[in-house]
Sequence to fold (389 residues):
Amino acid sequence: MGKVIVMTSGKGGVGKTTTSAAFSAGLASRGHKTVVIDFDVGLRNLDLIMGCERRVVFDFVHVINGDARLNQALIRDKRLEHLYILPTSQTRDKDALTREGVERVLTELREQFEYIICDSPAGIERGALMALYFADEAIIVTNPEVSSVRDSDRILGVLQSRSRRAEEGLDPVREHLLLSRYDPERVERGEMMKVDDVLEILAIPLLGVIPESRSVLKASNVGTPVILDPQSAAGDAYRDAVGRFLGESLPFRFMRPERRGLFQRFLRRSA
Amino acid sequence: MNILSFLRPKSTLPTAEQAKERLKIVLAHERSYASAPDYLPRLQNEILQVIARYVELEQDKLTVKLENFGSTSRLEVNIDLPKTAASVVAGPASQADRKSDDPDAAADEPATDARAVL
Fold:
């Protein structure tokens, strides 16, 4: 039985899709059969970040409506044999995702996959609620910035009251904090909240700290999950987070400004 | 992309250029679809089912496009047949095994494989 993981945040632009792409690629590269689903109906973007935008024929909504079979809509990643992508629809119909339809698709996916990553849209509207409703685990993507932390707190409340696990009185959704766009130099100058500040407010276990990194934009430019970039600090941090998710105990890196010489500076810049 | 990239011949575009190219292609495709009726996927599926009765065919070997030319529209059905079947059903099999996940390639080469313009 596969596990359903939602990537959620409340706020937009914090890195949910980047994280979904990185996490699913990270799990798949460790041999776990993984599928990543775009829940942002009307604003398809996961396909671009994964680099499969020209291979989309059928989508999530076609499968829900019975216009296509699940296996017709699943796109097999060309880099990782255990990774599949289920793109969303471009329809403007807000009611395209029905709870029954989503449940049917997730039930079928649970039989085929070990991990099902749900890339939530921003907000707390239908798409976001559907993405988190069936979750077993939630990765809360947060930036060290006031509005992001507040929205993460809101979405934690929603997880604890309006998920299937909450409604049916089952074990609660397991929550993990992923702090992204962390800039240790600004933290040191007192311009950005520290990891501990955010942890104190949100009070959920820390899964990873992803440093602000130029490689994230470069990876999205070319449609490659940043975790597949072996030279990227963000990629390293995502690999660590995936390891922790799978139960490994790894020290947190990239939380202090790098002291580096000229030569290293040059290396990092070209990476 | 690392320090050694200076030693390699500069064959690939900067990533920002690649981003622009990818966006142009995907948006051109999507804008043409924006006005397309919702029956296209179902139509594609039904055509696929009929063909699959005669030839073993994968879903991604068939594309359906609707293009608008002023007052008329053109519905284009493009089918890549496997080599063995192509000689029976669609004549020359020269390009039948061409990669088909590239919608533009399919549009740019009018004389390939089985094609119906309705």
Observations:
- The mean pLDDT of chain A is 93.
